[in-house]
Amino acid sequence: MQLTVLGLNHKTAPVEVRERFNLSEDRIKHILGNLRRFDEIREAIILSTCNRTEIYMVIDNPEKTIPLFKDQLAKMAGEAYNPDYFYHLNGTNCVRHLFRVAASLDSLIIGEGQILSQIKAAYQLARNNESTGYMLNQIMNKAIAVGKRVRTETRIAFSSVSVSSAAVDLAMEILGDLSKAEILVVGAGHMSELTTRHLLDKGAKTIIVSNRNYDHAKELADKFGGSVIPYREMFKHAAKADIIISSTGAPHYVLTKENLGPLLPERKGRPLVLIDIAVPRDIDPALSDVEGVTVYNIDDLEGVVDTNKTFRASEALTAEHIIEESIEELKERLRYYTMRPVMVQLHDKMNFLRQKVLKKAFIKLPNLTDEEKHIIDIMTQKLEHKFLREPMIAMNSRAGTAEEEQYRKMMVDLFLLNVEGEEFGDESKIDDWD
Questions:
Q1: Is 10 exposed, middle or buried (CB count within 10 Å of its CB: 0-12, 13-18, 19+)?
Q2: Torsional class of 284: left (φ above 0), alpha (ψ -120 to 50), beta (otherwise)
Q3: What are the angstrom distances between the C-alpha of 98 and each of 27, 31, 106?
Q4: Is there a catalytic annotation at residue 94?
Q5: Which among 8, 15, 50, 305 is annotated as catalytic?
Q6: Which of 133, 148, 233, 273, by CA, is between 20 and 30 Å from 75?
Q7: How confident is the model at residue 146 (pLDDT cuts 50, 70, 90)?
Q8: What is the rounded distance in angstroms from the CA atom of residue 116 to the CA atom of residue 103?
């Protein structure tokens, strides 16, 4: 049994590849449902954000399962496939990677807080779809605790920027004074709200919001004293804006050369800045070929956030220490995991047989009082515990060692824990007192 993660992120793959793997909640549910059909896959969780898509699994046969998944990734990537886009980590390396993700050390913007809520949501979705078990439950809960601890015990999130604030900083680098710029925000979701807030904080005065759902656009515009335009008029107004920041959930380009290009001559040479912070992308990169138009996507924001990396570097070292400490704590907790099924089955079998024999004894001794039956029951429980104590200690001591597999097989064979079709072995070998 092996813990593994397969994935890609902003470090390994450009946005035009990552957007092919951006999975909606419904699609994740569908994939998790399909995975339950594979006996080799015991547990699975899928994390899909703007900057990463990862599947964490507990699998029985990695030699067979991993190549199948890599083939599926290649199909999803299509012509853009490159094996270097994807990483595959096992065991402790997988756990370390997840903890670094939860601590935002692996984010495009180190210290950003959104990733922790995204991990929680991915974990809850997997639990609701019954695709997690003991192993991933332990690991995901520990990862969430690590993320919280890093944010509490370090200043890694202090003065950190977000994707939305980085987009606004980029706009300021290009135009300078935002108070004189006309800004169009396309989209009315959480990211658009954060962007609008940062625009106002940086001095923007004229903010216009457009979204397919007019009521959502109006709600966002009213919250910040902006104005709203119907989506069907958005393209006409886009030709008048200085900056367009787009963040919708559309699965296709929203702004293209076909719908925006014909309107651009009206600008008479005025520059237009398009900032795309959506994944999948909202803005057709071909628009950058149009004279006077500059297009930035989410990958272009990395240079903007370099300014506070030096400060966070020292805090990141403290975070790494927390992660390594947490890995050791988790290892100790999971040390007996591989032996646990055998230990549980042995205990259950002994308890089953104890109660079976006890029931027959009580039938042969009908005059026993309830108090006497209770005393005998307690006595047999103590005998059971004393009998199991040494085998349990022995199994614990072999867990995680080179002897583990051999000892597990010996215990299974010795106590008939693997007799097919019989939950607790062959009862006929037990004296039935008749």
A1: buried
A2: beta
A3: 22, 20, 9
A4: no
A5: 50
A6: 133
A7: very high
A8: 8
Give the amino acid at 83: P
**What pLDDT, on the 0 to 100 scale, is given for residue 311?**
60
For residue 425, the model assigns a pLDDT of 43
The string of DSSP letters for 362-403 reads HHH-TT--HHHHHHHHHHHHHHHHHHHHHHHHHHHHHTTSTT
Residue type at 325? Answer: E
Q: What is the DSSP letter of 171?
A: H
DSSP code, position 266: G
Amino acid at 184: L
Token pair of 304 as six digits:
């903007």
Structure pTM? 0.71
CA pair distance 287, 56, nearest whole angstrom: 37
Q: Two tokens at 163?
A: 């994707």
Distance of CA 253 to the CA centre of its chain: 26
Structure confidence at residue 201 (pLDDT): 86
Task: Name residue 80's amino acid.
Answer: A
* Strand bridging mode 206-210 / 182-186: parallel
* Three-state secondary structure string covering 291-326: CCEEEECHHHHCCHHHHHHHHHHHHHHHHHHHHHHH
Q: Taking the mean position of all CA atoms in its chain, how far away is CA 274? A: 30
Whether 144 and 119 have beta carbons less than 8 Å apart is answered as yes
Dihedral angle computed from the Cα positions of residues 159, 160, 164 and 168, in that order, rounded to the nearest 10 degrees: 50
Name the token pair of 13: 């793959």
Strands 243-246 and 227-228: unpaired
DSSP helix/strand/coil, 161: coil
Closest of 136, 147, 111 to residue 46, by C-alpha: 136
Integer Cα distance of 95 and 200 in angstroms: 40
At 246-275, the pLDDT tens digits run: 999 888 899 998 888 888 887 777 888 898
Count CA atoms within 13 Å of residue 325 on its CB side. Answer: 10
Average pLDDT over residues 92-112: 90
The position carrying tokens 């992308």 is 281
pLDDT tens-place string over residues 36-88: 888 788 899 999 998 999 999 998 877 878 888 888 788 777 777 788 899 99
Tell me the pLDDT of the chain averaged across its residues. 85
